[in-house]
Amino acid sequence: MRRRTALSVVSAVVGGTTVPFAFAPAPAAARDRQRPQSPSARWDFDERAGTVTREAVSGAADPIDYVFTDARFKPDSDPVRRRGVRGRALYFDGYSTVVTARGPGDLDPAGGLTLDVWLAPYAYEHGIDGKPQALVNQHDPDARTGFLLGLRRFGQLVFQLGFGTDLIEVEGAVDQPATKGRWTHVTATYDPAARQLRLYRDGRPIGTATTPDRAPRLAPDEPLLIGRHNRPTLLNGEFHANMYTGLLDSVVIRPGTLDDPEARTEHDDAIAALPGRRVPRPDLAQHRSRFDGDRHRPQFHMLPPWHWMNEPHAPVYFKGKYHIFYQHDPFGPYWGQIHWGHAVSTDLVHWRDLPIALAPAADSVGPDGCWSGSAYVDGDRGPVLFFTGGDDRLAHRQRTGLAVSTYPADGDTDLPTWTMRSEPVTEAPAGLPAGPGTAWAENFRDPFVWEEDGVWYQLVGSGIVDYDGTRVTRKHGGTALVYTARRPEGPWTYRGPLHRNDLATQPGPGEVWELPVLLPLPGPQGKRTGKHILLISPWWEAFHPEAVKHTYYWIGTFDKRACRFVPDHEEPREFDLGEHFTGPSGFVTPDGRSVLFSITQDRRTEQQHAQSGWAHNAGMPVSVSLRRDGTLGVEPIAEAAGLRGERLARIRRTSVEEANRRLAGVSGDLLDIHAVIEPRDARSITLAVRACADGTEQTLLSYDTAERRFSIDRGRSSLDPDVRKGVHGGTVELDGGKLRLRVLLDRSMLEAYVNGTHSLTSRVYPTREDATGLRLTADRGAARVLELDVWRMNGAYDTPVAPAAYDPPRPADVDALPNHDFATGDLTGWTVVSGTTFSDANVTTRTDWGWGGPFYQAQTQDDTSGHHLWGFNPDAGGDEATGVLRSATVVLGGDGVVDLLVSGGNDPDRLYAAVVRARDGKVLAKATGRGVEQYRRVVFDLAAHIGERIHVEVVDRAAGGWGHINVDDVNVPVRR
Fold this sequence. Notes:
Low-confidence stretches: 1-31
Number of helices: 4
CATH topology of the largest domain: Tachylectin-2, Chain A
GO molecular function: beta-fructofuranosidase activity
EC number: 3.2.1.26
CATH class of the largest domain: Mainly Beta
Structural class: mainly beta
Keywords: Disulfide bond, Glycosidase, Hydrolase, Signal
Helix content: under 10%
Region (Disordered): 27-47, 205-225
Mean pLDDT: 94
Oligomer: single chain
Shape: globular
Number of strands: 69
Radius of gyration: 30 Å
Signal peptide: 1-22
Largest sheet: 8 strands, antiparallel
Number of domains: 4
Distance between the termini: 73 Å
Strand content: 35-45%
């Protein structure tokens, strides 16, 4: 148990050291105190539209940076605005919204400084790298100049002011945060006469700090930013941390100082001026309309209203409603700061968003993250949630916790409010025995809980290792640890490993099992069979090319007495034939079906996530059963048919040619397709979806009768070179000589179900508006179409919004830069100008760099192998080597737009790819990496230089860590 401490001090940072200061009231009559004067800068955010906000004192129109001002996958749209305390307020989305201004006007802080802001936070950031979420700041922390008003962890208010030699910080009391979901009036003041910084919350003092006996120094060379830190941490090479999410209203900067009575009076006067003398409730709902027109965002699958999700979990049925929770980052479409999102449904396919269920909290077992878990109904008090609590202060960092709803008190069956218990449910001590070794205590997560015959069972994902007291010396494989109890709160008794894989003979399930699920398998008529299915997601400590791509399962018997799973087959089986079905969770419905949820990873780059504003979605829930032959039955839940709208085709007992003719007028990107086909003597049957008439873009679902293989071919699924492609599939037997196919198509989402035995989940990202056609073909034979039905699908949340943004076509009257994508496998067409860092050995088809994640290099129809130039050559000096590489010299033509993929080190002066004018060597545009190996696409608009001779240079003059640059797919429109 971690003791809760009631803090009665605040702190100041003096010369980089944190020093405690006791609360002290502001002197009632401090000598020579200068009262607050007229604002030197004020932003009220009262605009109803547009991409600027007006600074009221100077009249300047300050730009609002926002991801959809120049959108990539949807129509452009303005930053989000809502009702404020008075007038309007600006919604900061946590990763892209920031106001950039020149400064606080004519301000001399020597006479005092006061900042005011109204804020309504949506979520609290973790304080990444120890930096606050900045509300408003213009400071240089290295020079210890300027000011910042912001939030630390869990909403604690903070004000910093620089004095050149010291950056003084006052923190508000931890029990007086800026509360999520309500408006808070915050005032920060500097009193030079009293040598104090003071913080006020709703007019009441919450903290003071002593300042040096010298005047503060501003940071005029820094931009004044509202919503983002002046020195934010860059995450994944793409996202800025230390940003604010929520509403802001009326940011005011004034010369002069407030004392306690004046702060109270000003706040009371502000309240008195409001209608009804009441502060309105902020509208912080994340409306899905933000993504209207997105050409890839699914419409009838479950996904959060904004930002990032990972696996849905803890499905549970209670009082006529299905609840699903999911891993969620409210700060942006990237992994981190994990909360539990929550949605509710009456039919498992139409969903309604509810408030965040669980969030990291200081007084819980999950201050650093609320990771995956499960739910089960505990009698009259309703469902209880079991979650993985992350606490970085602990040696093993992970344990399981319990959360209960307020249903017993409020009777609300939506279950919108949850309380996390401060006591852990289970923890993994070092040396916990687990078969051939001990449980890997640092990997102890994802509880799956159910109750049966008065006994509560808990599975916890982990691994089995040998440990010498300081390090892991051997990894045996993954496992699920079993605990039992008589009530959810415990005490829980450890019963050993449920089952395990041996890495030496069964490496596929990984070193650790995540998200273990154990469900009974009903028979074809829903009757009990006595069999269970055990599903897991594999995890590896280091990067592994198969990570987050697979779900494995065993069919077998659960021995309740021994708490062991006895499989019917030793080899684990892969659940899905694609590479996008992961993160299983499951439950038993009231009518006895065993239903699985999953996350469908979208396999997009971090840059694409940032540009789209969302990441990942849930798969369609599937029913699993035991077939008469002892194999697994897999079907989308029957409720999926409730999403069907207009029937677009109904074809019976005809030839493939006739069926294809009747499909000529059928198109769509939200479809439910059902087909029964007799291949007869045909070598293969192929259904093309998301197809252009000329085949430029199309995705092929095929069954090869000779190889008995069902597959998806995405080689032509998209003209976008940054989209993942490839072929995936597996062995599937015909069902009585017939191919039974069900396809659910939802924009970028594609799920195929074959013969009731297999699923294939994938993603496709066409670029063309006309990539919506269907085609059916048979190769080398006369197949027979027995049934073919196509329905248009309705949305899971509301009426589907039509996609409305497509890429303009590239110029057609141009040539390409020679070997622009290194498809030759060497440096043909390029010249090594100097140095040793670039050679033919740098051109590679590697998809990862060995110690981390994927490159995500370009994949085109001309270079399906994905060649690219990796600037790190371990056989030629690695990061220490330097050099310059130059392309052929060409005449710039077409629209003059050049784009390329770049990654590697971040050093714009010594490490970059550049477009250079040949006649004088002038660099027209250049880009460096961002300290990550994953590629991001940069675009240079060089229309002003059309007709000039140019070349591309790749320059590496940097040594040491990250002293390399990577380049791929250099697209230059070359005049013929």
